[in-house]
């Protein structure tokens, strides 16, 4: 009876103290496209799987993934009011090639932005001037390395839409000469919609790049906890397996 009474008192006292709680942090994404996000409402896709994997390793820091439009994201950054991290980005897209404005994690994956055209009217890219006189399908608000160059390449007419699927449909219907779409997204949508024999990839892509996680300097302590999780050998091994399931490269 004495032991039972002591155990009851111990459990009561234990319950009086708050349980340990990991720091909660938000990971923002602005690429709402497959395979990175396949269903935003159902929280499905590679980005959600990556967050779950990170959370299984970062015991002191737990992330929640949220979608935010790029324009809203840019405004928060300009006002130094971003309350979280950004997943799936590259320093070049935020004018921080030297990595001096923000904190950048080690690369998570690699992808390629392709010049995609209709198989009946194949487009080959050799130089930025190759784009001159063409209608080029793009995503509104996105950064494109060569299209942002002015001077002799200013004759390029950019046609903005709001999704990669809409871009590929424009190529399919021959409403643009060429579109810039990531290889992973094109392959996913081509398989899904039966477009495998419709599109042509230029021998020279627009750009090959890595995706990583960015954070403002104000979150340096939290960023260190994140990077510790990403540096885990077990995390890296599990990430490779995850990326292969989506046909991507670590």
Number of helices: 7
Write the element-wise H/E pattern from the N-terminal end onward: HEHEHEEEEEHEHEEHH
Rg of Cα set: 22 Å
Largest sheet: 10 strands, mixed
Low-pLDDT windows of residues: 1-20
Strand content: 15-25%
Q: Describe the oligomeric state of these chains in a short phrase.
A: single chain
The rough form would be described as globular
Mean pLDDT reading: 88
First-residue to last-residue Cα separation: 59 Å
Structural class: alpha/beta
Helix fraction, binned, reads: 25-40%
Write down how many β-strands occur, each being a DSSP E stretch of 2 or more residues: 10
Structure report:
- The chain has 250 residues and is α/β, with parallel strands linked by helices.
- The chain contains seven helices and ten strands.
- Strands 1, 2, 3, 4, 5, 6, 7, 8, 9 and 10 form a ten-stranded mixed beta sheet that branches.
- Strand 1, helix 2 and strand 2 form a beta-alpha-beta unit.
- 27% of the residues are buried.
Task: Label this structure with key terms.
10 strands; single chain; 250 residues; 23% strand; disordered N terminus; alpha/beta; globular
Write the layout of secondary structure elements.
Elements: H1 2-16, E1 23-29, H2 46-57, E2 61-67, H3 70-78, E3 85-89, E4 103-104, E5 109-118, E6 135-139, E7 157-161, H4 164-172, E8 178-182, H5 183-193, E9 199-201, E10 207-215, H6 220-230, H7 233-245
Parallel strand pairs: 1-2, 1-3, 6-7, 6-8
Antiparallel strand pairs: 3-10, 4-10, 5-8, 5-9, 5-10
Helix pairs in contact: 2-7
